[in-house]
Design a protein that fits this description.
The protein is an alpha/beta fold. Helix content is about 35%, strand content about 20%. It has helices at about 40-55, 140-145, 150-160, 185-200, 215-235, 250-255, 270-285, 295-310, 310-320, 335-345, 370-380, 395-400, 405-415, and strands spanning about 5-10, 15-20, 25-30, 70-75, 90-100, 105-115, 125-130, 165-170, 205-215, 240-245, 355-360, 385-390. β2 (about 15-20) and β3 (about 25-30) form a beta hairpin. α7 (about 270-285) crosses α8 (about 295-310).
Length: about 425
């Protein structure tokens, strides 16, 4: 969790230290330095020194970012153990994009190029949108690899084998200043599109023609991107279509029913973790909502843990916890909660200009099938260019099995 010192001063016989985090401002008043808990002394000393010596560094990180979206700020080699199997090259980029506040920000991402000579026009590009990994910087795929490497690496290696270059954003705030705005569709779409621009700015062998592919959280990012890719990409890119499996559609409707003892039972750990990540991200992206005011100590505990704990460890810690125990009042008692949440994470239902594929598992407990099924029905009723397949599989099983359908689908987009 990021902290910044607001003030250090003395008044009368007291020393006052004021520290701000994403969540709140905390003030310590002590008569002697020794009264500060030992575990906090070193950290506070470092924070005070940094605040005094480098105040500009702790100003709004986004305000310091300049350049155009897609500009590459830095490049480094990716550690070998994080390479997608079969890649000829793998590099880590830091690039300019747009964050949840609509401001320029930094994101990190990776570029993987297949072996061989690029075809005329360059390697067709897949902008990979990763699934839930966590909110802490230590959870960024470019730092530790995918959350489920045994599942994701073979999947991505298969795309490389088909002759696609892969660019993969970590998303703004995950490994860069700020907090990842989990499930914020619009900012994540910017991150996904701008990663293509950054990849091409760095490596001339990448084509301007591209698609986006994502799973789970990344499927939401991919399908949201599908709606705005042509607009966000502009004339320099040639967007062709999208693939999303396990898409978290209409999740805002489930979150909006939250309240004391609602739901009254423990949900699958994955769903409970996702709710915690959403609450943590909303506190960061929309502090005006005052989310903490309707959270119980249990809710505050897990929203705080969500900021610092990667997904599988978090699921273990939250197993058996009831989401209904998070709330002291209905979430809808917060002024404008529903409209803010809809604007933040509701999936678009119209305006798609290129074909896109959605796949979902009938046995999925991470993202329940009925919510995504209802979303697909709405898309179909609205005449959107969606192809949908249901699989007799769970969340991960659908991801793996879907390639039998998605590989030919994506190939047809470049035909």
């Amino acid at each position: 969790m990021a902290l910044s010192v607001l003030a250090v001063g003395a008044g009368g016989s007291e020393i006052t230290i004021v520290v701000r985090s994403y969540r709140a401002t905390t003030e310590w008043r002590v008569r002697e330095y020794e009264e500060i808990p030992v575990a906090l002394r070193r950290r506070l000393c470092a924070l005070v020194l940094a605040a005094v010596l480098t105040p500009a560094l702790f100003a709004s990180p986004a305000s310091a970012v300049t350049g155009d979206v897609g500009d590459v700020v830095s490049v480094s080699d990716l550690p070998r153990d994080l390479w997608i199997p079969g890649a000829a090259t793998a590099e880590l980029l830091t690039y300019v994009t747009t964050d949840t506040f609509g401001k320029k920000a930094l994101s990190t991402g990776t570029v993987f190029v297949p072996p061989g000579t690029a075809p005329a026009g360059g390697w067709p590009v897949i902008s990979w949108a990763h699934g839930t990994s966590g909110l802490d910087d230590s959870c960024a795929p470019s730092k530790v690899g995918p959350a489920d490497p045994a599942r994701d690496f073979p999947y991505l290696a298969n795309w490389l084998k088909q002759g696609y270059a892969i660019v993969a954003s970590d998303y703004a705030g995950l490994g860069t200043p700020g907090l990842q705005a989990y499930l914020d569709g619009r900012s994540t779409a910017h991150n996904v599109v701008d990663m293509v621009k950054a990849g091409r700015n760095h490596d001339a062998s990448l084509s301007r023609s591209w698609v986006t592919v994502g799973q789970s959280q990344g499927a939401g990012a991919a399908i949201y991107t599908a709606r705005y890719a042509t607009e966000f990409g502009g004339p320099d890119l040639d967007y062709r279509g999208a693939v999303g499996t396990g898409t978290p559609a209409y999740i805002e409707k489930l979150v909006s029913i939250g309240g004391p003892n609602t739901p009254p039972i423990a949900l699958p750990a994955g769903l409970t973790a996702y709710v915690s990540y959403i609450l943590a991200a909303l506190r960061y992206a929309h502090p005006e909502l005052g989310v903490d005011s309707i959270l119980t100590p249990t809710g505050k505990k897990f929203a705080a843990l969500a900021e610092t704990t990667c997904v599988f460890d978090f699921e273990e810690q939250i197993e058996g916890t009831k989401v209904g125990d998070f709330f002291s009042a209905p979430v809808t008692s917060l002024p404008d909660f529903t409209s803010v949440l809809d604007d933040y994470m509701a999936m678009p239902e119209s305006g798609f200009d290129k074909p896109f594929f959605m796949g979902h598992g009938l046995l999925d407990t991470d993202v329940p099938f009925p919510t995504t099924g209802a979303y697909v029905a709405r898309l179909t009723a609205n005449g959107q260019p969606v192809t949908f397949e249901a699989y007799d599989a769970d969340h991960s099983g659908t991801f793996v099995r879907s390639q039998a359908d998605t590989v030919p689908f994506v190939k047809s987009l470049f035909g």
